Amino acid sequence: MATREGNLEAPTRHALDWKNPDFYNEEKLNEELERIFDICHGCRRCVSLCDAFPTLFDLVDESPTFELDGVDKKDYVKVVDQCYLCDLCYMTKCPYTPPHEWNLDFPHTMLRAKAIKHKNGDVKTRDKILSATDTVGSLAGIPVVSTIVNATNENALGRKALQKILGVHPDATLPKYHSKTGRKSIAPAITENNQKYSEATAAGRTTGKVAIFATCYGNRNEPHLLTDLHAVLDHNKIPVTLVDKETCCGMPKLELGDLKAVEKAKNVNIPEMIKKIDAGWDIVAPIPSCILMFKQELPLMFPDDADVQKVKEHIFDPFEYLMLRHKESLLNLEFKQSLGKIAYHAACHLRVQNMGYKTRELLQLVEDTSIEIIERCSGHDGTYAVKEEFHEKSMKICRPVITKVQKSESNYYSSDCPMAGHQIANGMKDDSTPHHPLTLLRMAYGL
To answer: Whole-angstrom Cα distance, residue 384 to residue 52?
Structure first.
């Protein structure tokens, strides 16, 4: 029996012991799933998050015993398939996370189950393709090919073909591909920037010099994120460069349970980041999921890798970085344009970084600008929302967010996660367009 109900201390995270042979022992996994599911069934605090919890509770409530012992263990995978590792249950809801004696880590147990599925070959070809962001992006980004891909993704017949061949839902929003990448777009401006601001001003944890980790999404799908980020950093007299070489951060492969692919990506990215860090540069990336990968998931997967831990301490969200500079009175506050009212969706992978709402804090510094924050999951997850079997559930998860945006009557709606922004737009059923916070900040500066 528990000696206390709930947890009065901040949750801590244990390292992921994924190289231990017992990690892939299905019998031991089922024992842990049964233990955790029984606790979750008795608590039900997370029912309003992803569909993993309603799926679990329906299995229990529809069983002969109305308890977990009435659920066939073969059905446990139905719960696993609904978890997309947003981590909100762990960081915002669960009262039994460590240091509580029950030591409950729902997301990483789901990750373990996904890893076993992947090791057993229980993975759809579609899921392998969707998670191969570098390969797909490099092919779809070829001139002419990108035009064909984008046209196909916006054509009803093309979408029906995608659904039949790959199982991609015809109503899901798919990202565009650009032959002129984000890295190509900002490379000339970087040279000009560094000629103007060769001297960096260190402040607090920041060196005042930024190496941008472009991310596959920022590079291939929304290159404006990089041009906006560069423009804002340049306006704050911060020297900028690019990480010389990069591959996908590994988050899509993590969500698939392909942990060896995550390690392979780590072995490319970490040495490149370390080169920049050792030369006095901080790392900044425009996508919350990618930052979370280097701040949390890789450090937990490789707790004894000194370079991984070093990157963890030197990678920043853009607004986190700028607010650290503001703390030392080094943020440019000469805004030229108010933004009015913004309905701001706080992305899950940003919330679980435990740094506060730096985007909201910064945008509120703009005169005559107010922020209505929305603390609910958009249900997108990068690939979950585009799969035909999950799309409608993803839109159901997003519905509270969409409703709040509609009721806010705001001038703009925004999310640090660009995919979440498009998911909201997909549910708005109008011609409205999400504006990324970096875009809004650039507008406020009048750039």
So the answer is: 12
Give the end-to-end CA distance of the chain in Å, rounded to a whole number.
60
pLDDT band at 189 (very low <50, low <70, confident <90, very high): confident
Query: 363's torsion region: left (phi>0), alpha (psi -120 to 50) or beta?
Result: alpha
How far apart, in whole angstroms, are the C-alpha atoms of residue 88 and residue 90?
Answer: 5
Q: pTM higher than 0.90 for the full model?
A: yes
CA distance 175 to 433: 14
Summarised one tens digit per residue, pLDDT across range 318-344 is 999 999 999 999 999 999 999 999 999
The structure tokens listed for 24 are 């892939």
CB 323 within 8 A of CB 361: yes
Least confident of 37-51, 126-140, 166-180, 402-416: 126-140
* Strand order from edge to edge, sheet including 340-345: 369-374, 340-345, 412-415
Distance CA 229, CA 447 (A): 11
Q: Among 210, 421, 416, which Cα is nearest to 322's? A: 210
Query: What are the pLDDT digits (tens) for 235-251?
Result: 999 999 999 999 999 99
Encoded amino acid at 321, one letter? Y
In the three-class reduction of DSSP (H, G, I as helix; E, B as strand; rest coil), residue 402 is classed as: helix
User: Residue 208: left if φ>0, alpha if ψ -120 to 50, beta else—which one?
Assistant: left
H-assigned helices in 340-382 = 348-351, 358-363
Four-residue CA torsion sign, 134, 140, 146, 150: negative
Look at the block and give the residue holding tokens 């229990």.
Answer: 60
Of 10, 20, 252, 37, the closest CA to residue 123 belongs to 252
Q: Assess whether pLDDT exceeds 50 at residue 209.
A: yes
